[in-house]
Amino acid sequence: MSKYAFDTLKVRAGYNPSDHRNAVSVPIYQTTAYELGDSYRADRLFAFEEDDPIYTRLSNPTVDVLEQRITALHPGAAASIALASGMAAVTYALLNAAGKGGRILTTARLYGGTVDSFEQIFDEYGIGVDIVENPDDISEFELKFTDDTKAVFLETLTNPFGTIPDLERIAYIAHQKGATLIVDNTVATPYLMNPFSHEADVVVYSATKALSGHGNVIAGIVVESGRFDYGAGRHPQFTKPLWFLRDSENRKRHILEIFPDAPFTGRIRAVHLNYLGAALGPFDAYLVLIGLETLSERVDKQVKNARLVRAFLEKNEHVAWLRHPEGDGSAYGALREKYFPKGVGSLVSFGFKGTEEQRRTFLASTEVFSYQANIGDARSLIINPAQTTHVELTERQCELVGLSPDTVRLSVGLEDPNDLIKDLKGAFAKAFE
Ligand SMILES: *Cc1c(COP(=O)(O)O)cnc(C)c1O
Questions:
Q1: What H or E segment, with its residue span, contains residue 71?
Q2: Where in the chain do CATH 3.90.1150.10 domains reside?
Q3: Tens-place pLDDT, residues 353-400
């Protein structure tokens, strides 16, 4: 399949109808467990020597198609693992890299839930987090590195302002120090950017957003390149012999022996999915597969619609500021050309010029844009991130992100762009009448 282009793979990869009674659409394998056959086969299955499914928490044929399709959509990827949510993908990936006493090097330009998990989860597990305050200054990554830094974690296109980190330069620093580079590519999607073409080692997604694209499912995915050497010493959890991984002669084995081609996702499956259990259900995997079939078409139209909406807002007297990587004089112009030649997705954020009451009226007055906490939906969405999606951020974190109380974020959908602009005009008129 890998000889085919992205748009062919997104509707076909990972699925062969002749393996599934010739069903054209991917069947939903709604089953908890699988017949083990004879007990010799069971021995092989439980010793990781045969990889057919045993139990749906660990793997499922419908979920498996999704995993293979996502891998195929990332040239340079070795394997993927689907999980029950984007948060599960982020936390499992970071827990997997950090190990006992490890540290994660990251920035404040992250999804609000991720930022808050550092305090609510990682601190409790003894994993430290160091924040690069100005990620546009690459030297700060070098300065903040410690002997315990196991991973660098970045969002490739940030929410709400679309800032862009210089992946290749940051990857170079991480790799020199022996740390793995994990990126959250949710806002960008693999259609706009493949992080494995820019030296990332692990990519995580909230498939809840543009990947599935219809606001009808919660799902997450971790993808890995298979190129990073987890046996080099900084990640001893990958080379520690373990009883539960023993072979048929009761010899303990380690993760790198069992999953040599894809140790990162292999370990997430054997450890985090197995024991923490955020498994994606087969029906939810099916919904993501259906959404993926139109990923390029949706994102292309959203990029176009977002440009038209942005052009309208840039000229509007009630807009105090508009920060966007495609805007005139954006500090991210060169990085955008390098990493995002096809566009920067559907988010447009601006400052509302008016009183708090006028802003509240504006938010309540759109009829097409729905007021809700999601992005990447087929429908256009509007929200005030400082008071909602990013409410966990401390004052200092808001300052680092540049997130002020007047911020309004739009996630532009697939409606007629003239209706979207009319809708915003109408809401401004209501707010200022
Ligand atoms: C939404 C989101 C998440 C969390 O995903 P869920 O599917 O809601 O758990 C993580 N990262 C980013 C960038 C997101 O937008």
A1: helix 61-72
A2: 295-431
A3: 999 999 999 999 999 999 999 999 999 999 999 999 888 888 999 999
